[in-house]
Amino acid sequence: MHQLPKRPGIAILAERAIEVLIRLCGVSAILFVFGIFFFVFREGSHFLFHGFKFGEFFLSPEWYPTSESHVRYGALALIAGTASVTLLAMLIAVPFGLGAAVFISEFCTPRAKETLKITVELLAAIPSVVWGFVGLTVMNRLIIEVFHTPIGLNVLNGGIILALMSVPIIVSIGEDALKAVPDSYREAALALGVTRWQLIYRVLAPAARNGLLAAVLLGIGRAVGETMAVLMATGHAVKIPSSVLDSVRTLTATIAAELGEAAVHSDHYQVLFIIGILLFSITFVINLTADLIVRGVRRG
Amino acid sequence: MIPSSKFSYSIQAARRSAIRLRAANACAYRAGERQRLPAFQLALLLPLTLAAVLAASCAHSKGPNKTEIQDTGSDTMVNLAQAWAEEYAKVDPSVSVEVSGGGSGTGIAALSAGTVDIANCSRKFEPQEIATATKNTGKTPKEFLVGYDALAIYVSKSNPLNEITLDQLAQIYGEGGKITKWSQLGVKMPDGADQIICVSRQSNSGTYFYFREAVLGKGKDFRLGSRDMQGSKDVVELVANTPSAIGYSGMGYNTPTVKQLHVAKAAGQPAYAPTVQTTLDHSYPIARPLFMYTLGEPAGAVKQYLDWIASDAGQKIVLQSGYVPLPKAGK
């Protein structure tokens, strides 16, 4: 047996150090997520357990955080605002996004594919405040003219802006999912004589299901969490919408607008953190559901 | 219309977050109160915070002969404060005044954290806010009256309405108010849209507080469903773009694209336009004083600056910025 040449101690040490560093990078995501949740929870926890009215928060639309006579923290209108804008955005973005992903991945020529992918990525790179300007100026006037409403800052405006913002995410992740389906599936299906449409919805869609679902859920996550664009495009009015032409205010926009000037550790400040906890819980539930669905699909 | 006004949203947002950051780190480092700094901010913004700490720590000793005055607060007063700062740079080049807005609430919060020298405020400090500031810093805020502002009621240029009473405003804006349509005010809108679109301010602006107290009445609240804008300018801009809107904002924010209504105390009484004259003789019913606050008795550069503001040279700028200067006798 040959003895391996002994490595210098410094090299071993350096390797250990790098190993530790990489491990730290790996767990840092978990640390950050728990850290953020812990601190958000801590900021809001005191009021949450002392004097916070769950019934009022979830069932009352009356949001009067700075009232002198009767302070009320009813977030129902804000929850309805977030829900309505997100729902409309997804109704628009999911068909368009998945359609575009299928087109880019299956139908177009390599040249068109490259052009489209670059353009979609460019769309994703537009800052949200710029989308907000578009909503505030261009879309506002357009909606007033087309629908003859008194004001164009409403659910429709916010929904369209959010849809435009989440389409690039859905397209690029959806396209990746479709690309990951082995070509042998396509060849086998085509050899059986299926049409292109049958290939897509009978073979590719089930095979890429997890990836497509992830694409849609990430799109929803983006829509729920988006702040600046909806702050500018939805009109920022505390109101439960009765149509898509009503102005609303979202949970995120409320935090953005009020946290800066709420006195630190006041009830108002803590309620804004409780809204943060609520937002965190919503995205957590969405991700968990997605995870469970994906597992279910795998087992089946 | 000023083209850059479209960007006011982002500028204000940036301004606000900068203030927040500065306030946060200065709290931690000066007052030594760890609990005032939300720890998640520290974790997330560590590099930024460090940079801001460096900036803040050298703010008051920038070179041997350059004194810096931090001036933060009221969004109504931000243009005025900026104009003063620019003019004062010519009067005394050794002093530089750093102005930022964000709302009266922001100024109050920053002053009671001890992070600014002057807080601009379009309303008086509440007794409770004075107590908080005294408790935090050991000094009592001192008030300086620096001018007046008439709160103008803006409507679109195409709106035929010219006059409004305080009671009508309360019915339009107040919780449980009866007026929701222009026809209830006897106005027929040219484009047929009858619904009144109320434009208001975010719930911690000094203008919002003043309007609530002066128009709706003490202890009353706004009706929900108004569009709550983040800045004085945003209100005027939205009104300009929305034919059936009504909004309130400082008189200095008037533009050629909107119309200021004449306001009467009650039905049957004469209505007045918001002008310097009507503000000073108290005939315009919703005019308010503008204040600057310091921590304790000001000294040195801050005192000289405030004295200059009260002087004729400083008060001339108030008039130029579209506000109402202090009456000569009242000084």
Can you offer a commentary on this structure?
The complex is a heterodimer of chains A (300) and B (331). Chain A has 300 residues and is an all-alpha fold. In chain A, 75% of the residues lie in helices and 1% in strands. Chain A has helices at residues 9-49, 54-59, 76-107, 110-124, 128-147, 155-179, 183-191, 196-207, 209-225, 228-233, 251-258, 267-299, and strands spanning 63-64, 72-73. In chain A, strands 1-2 form a two-stranded antiparallel ribbon. In chain A, helix 4 (110-124) crosses helix 6 and helix 9 runs antiparallel to helix 12 (267-299). The longest helix of chain A is centred in the first third of the chain and has 41 residues, at 9-49. The mean pLDDT of chain A is 89. Chain B is of the alpha/beta class and 331 residues long. Chain B has helices at 8-31, 39-44, 46-57, 78-91, 104-112, 127-137, 166-173, 206-216, 232-241, 276-280, 300-310, 312-320, and strands at 67-73, 95-100, 118-121, 141-156, 163-165, 197-201, 227-229, 245-250, 258-260, 262-264, 271-272, 287-295. In chain B, the strands form two sheets. In chain B, strands 1, 2, 3, 4, 6, 7, 8, 9 and 12 form a nine-stranded mixed β-sheet that branches. In chain B, strand 1 (67-73), helix 4 (78-91) and strand 2 (95-100) form a beta-alpha-beta unit. Chain B is globular. Chain B starts with 7 loop residues before the first helix and ends in an 11-residue tail after the last helix. Residues 1-46 and 48-64 of chain B have low confidence and may be disordered. Classes of the chains: A mainly alpha (300), B alpha/beta (331). Chains A and B meet through helix 1, strand 1, helix 5, helix 10 and helix 11 of A and helix 1, helix 2, helix 5, helix 8 and strand 7 of B.
